[in-house]
Amino acid sequence: MSFDIDGERDHLDRIAADSWYAKGANAAMVLHCAEIWRRSWRGNSCLELGSAEGLMTTTLAEVFSDLTIVDGSEAFCADLRRRFPTATVVCSLFEEFCPDRRYDVIVMGHVLEHVVDPRGLLSVARDWLADRALIYAAVPNANSIHRQAAVLMGLLQEEHVLNDTDRHQGHRRVYDPETFRTEFRAAGYHIEMFGGFWLKPLSNSQIEAHWSAEMLDAFMRLGERFPDIAAEIYLTASIDAAFPPQA
């Protein structure tokens, strides 16, 4: 696949100029994901890809004494260096990142829906994982009930079509649980755990206008009971030595 490096940097700069991940309900979503993953962190070293505003990074910095952060936006990286002075912050496209070491944990929070070649990134990341290491990844879920409702209302042609929020955030695709797991299996990983969170019946703007913080927290946790229709899905995966990446 051809890759326009300068075009991708411009693409990331546009997203960083008005990112919504640290605002309103999205911020609560990122922090809830961090708390779910905190239940199973292991090891001492962590590589976070796509830190953006650094909401997830705050939790990672509390847990891992050895933290490397990679983001393609210089604006984000400058702020991350200021806020996390003991971390190693690398301003790089993932496709150009080439570490000379391995990590106990790799975190990809809302990364795979953005990149040009997600399976290629996952395949390369195998070389960045230490023995018994895990990748943690989360993406929006096409089967979320708010997307299903949008189809019934005629606002989306079908659940996998990009909506206005997807396009604003620079998403290139919308995963469902099966395509998400398939991406990892095809890249030579074993799925250790799959789950979801945030049972989301309405749009972010509707939730932010009318819900209390207690309601938002309850629906974040309720989604853990119904992962296949939750707004967010996540998994942890390890290298499956018996199955190398597929071409």
Helix coverage percent of residues? 25-40%
Helix and strand pattern: HHEHEHEEHEHHHEHHE
- So what's the overall shape? globular
**Unreliable parts:** none
Q: Beta-strand level of the residues, as a percent range? A: 15-25%
Major pleated sheet: 7 strands, mixed
Provide the structure class. Answer: alpha/beta
| Radius of gyration, whole Å | 17 Å
Mean pLDDT: 93
How far do the termini sit from each other?
A: 12 Å
Query: Helical element count?
Result: 10
Trace the largest sheet across and list its strands: 3-2-1-4-5-7-6
Number of strands: 7
In short:
This protein has 247 residues and is an alpha/beta fold. It contains ten helices and seven strands. β4, α5 (118-125) and β5 (129-140) form a beta-alpha-beta unit.
Can you walk through the features of this model?
With 247 residues, this protein is an alpha/beta fold. It has 10 helices and 7 strands. It has helices at residues 5-17, 24-38, 55-63, 74-83, 118-125, 145-152, 164-168, 177-186, 204-210, 213-222, and strands at residues 45-49, 66-71, 88-91, 103-109, 129-140, 189-197, 232-239. The protein has a 7-stranded mixed sheet, sandwiched between helices. The longest helix is centred in the first third of the chain and has 15 residues, at 24-38. The radius of gyration is 17 Å and the shape is globular.
